[in-house]
Write a structure and sequence with these properties.
This protein is an alpha/beta fold and about 450 residues long. The chain has 3 domains: about 55 residues, Orthogonal Bundle (3-methyladenine DNA Glycosylase II, Chain A, domain 3), CATH 1.10.15.40; about 250 residues, Dihydropteroate synthase-like (TIM Barrel, Alpha-Beta Barrel), CATH 3.20.20; about 120 residues, Rossmann fold. The protein is built from 16 helices and 17 strands. Strands 10-9-8-7-6-3-12-11 form an 8-stranded parallel beta sheet. Strands 13-15-14-16-17 form a 5-stranded mixed beta sheet, with helices on both faces. The protein has a two-stranded antiparallel ribbon with strand order 1-2. Helix 6 runs parallel beside helix 7 and helix 10 packs parallel to helix 11. The longest helix has 17 residues.
């Protein structure tokens, strides 16, 4: 059970050293209780207190780190049932399935195709993280060879799937520094799989036929000293799978059930006979509440919408999505192309840039940091005032790129024209349309 701020305070050194970043130990204790601070920020906490506090302040769903490198992924670590309560922290990992009987040429082609699925969105690189390697009965050597190729020739992290501990052991050894997820321990092989996971320092998935059996298996493995577990309730019926995920999340968060306090894995590839339906199932489970989803394949038309959904769901609802302040060339502009300016609210950027791109008119789009507010809201809050926008335009460097000293401002910000003219002598300030849909006609008419 989580401790209160006062209970945590009693375990702290009470030095008020301020080295944690807040003025007093009591303030730090309150931040720790509310999840706004981490215990490691206190340099003087005793080992005994650290042990008590670490357990009490641990997230109700344990974070499990998988893989290594640029696509390393932590799953779990969630603290709320609903996103608007706080935020979801660790995005669902996405995996594609390959068999250990795949040929070297086909595997190389798949990995090349998978690696190409990278999408730039609001300054982020959206991409999948895992390749799930399934034992096709070709033996430990074939399984290990596929795992080694995945780990050494791609950025993807491995999920190793086999009922045979010897096969998993060979696969784990071939993964090198990439920390794999071993799938799966069952009631029949729990001790053997648990021992293997400890030896390989790997995370272990556990599979059972019911929630009660899952709890018993989880307790058995945690008693063996295993901490990094991933749960598979076993069902392959979409509705029941969704219900199981919700039940597990609620049990961990609302009931404090530590036996179920781990991320889950969903095999969408085993719940449908085509990728379209798999995608629908995956979309449901990204929202509620899979830690990892395994698909039969990665295809752009399936993967891209899932990555966007994941981005939206795992974005802090208390912080608007933003794009980086700066100059964005659209349609290969030159020194005679028009200049537009707007705020860095991501939705505003995508709408405006999309309309400019659709107009086929080469243009420069200036994005000013408005703390993620839309144009009208930013103007009302003083984040898009004439003098600030003018200073931004002067410092942006756009004057070195264009001969035509004309800047088009959003129609809803017409009131800032006067202040901009004072800040930008020699520039022509043009009020553009209020609605982004009117931008193409506006640009073509100039």
């Amino acid at each position: 059970m989580a401790l209160t701020g006062i209970q945590i305070f009693k375990l702290l050194p009470k030095t008020n050293c301020k080295e944690c970043g807040v003025p007093t130990c009591l303030a730090f204790a309150m931040n720790l209780a509310s999840g706004k601070a981490e215990l490691d920020q206190c340099p003087y906490v005793s080992d005994e207190a650290r042990e008590q506090l670490a357990e009490a302040s641990a997230p109700p769903i344990r974070p499990v780190k998988l893989g290594a490198g640029v696509r390393e992924r932590t799953v779990g670590g969630e603290t709320v049932l609903y996103r608007h309560e706080k935020t979801f922290f660790n995005p669902t990992g996405l995996a594609a399935l390959v068999g250990s009987d795949i040929s070297k040429a086909d595997l190389a082609a798949k990995l090349t195709a998978f690696n190409a699925f990278q999408y730039e969105r609001v300054g982020l690189n959206l991409r999948p993280e895992f390749v799930a390697i399934k034992d096709a009965g070709k033996g430990a050597d074939a399984f290990a060879a596929v795992a080694k190729t995945v780990c050494e020739t791609s950025e993807f992290n491995p999920i190793l799937i086999s009922d045979d501990a010897a096969v998993l052991k060979a696969g784990a050894a071939a993964c090198g520094p990439k920390r794999p997820l071993l799938y799966a321990a069952t009631q029949a092989n729990a001790e053997e799989m648990g021992k293997l996971a400890k030896e390989a320092d790997a995370a272990l998935a556990i599979k059972a036929d019911s929630i009660d059996d899952l709890i018993a298996l989880s307790d058995k493995l945690t008693a063996m000293g295993l901490k990094d577990l991933v749960l598979d309730p076993g069902t392959r019926e979409p509705k029941q799978s969704l219900q199981d995920n919700v039940f597990i999340r609620r049990a961990a968060l609302k009931k404090g059930n530590r036996s179920l306090g781990f991320p889950t894995i969903c095999f969408a590839c085993e719940m449908a006979d085509n990728l379209d339906v798999e995608t629908l199932i995956a979309a449901q489970h990204i929202a509620k509440y899979a830690g990892i989803i395994v698909l039969s394949d990665f295809k752009g038309e399936s993967l891209f919408p899932l990555l966007l959904e994941r981005l939206n769901i795992f974005t802090d609802p208390q912080r608007p999505m933003t794009v980086t302040e700066g100059i964005y060339p659209i349609n290969n502009p030159d020194e005679n192309s028009p200049v537009l300016v707007t705020t860095n609210f991501a939705l505003t950027y995508f709408i405006v840039s999309g309309e400019v791109e659709g107009s086929k008119v080469p243009a420069w789009l200036l994005i000013k940091d408005s703390e993620g507010l839309s144009v009208l809201t930013a103007w009302a809050a003083g984040k898009f005032s004439g003098d600030d926008v003018g200073v931004f335009i002067k410092k942006s460097g756009i004057a070195d790129k264009v001969k035509n000293k004309t800047v088009i401002i959003p129609g809803f910000a017409a009131a800032i024209v006067g202040d901009m003219e004072e800040e930008l002598p020699g520039w022509d300030i043009v009020v553009g349309p209020r609605e982004a849909a009117h931008i193409p006609a506006f640009l073509k008419s100039r």
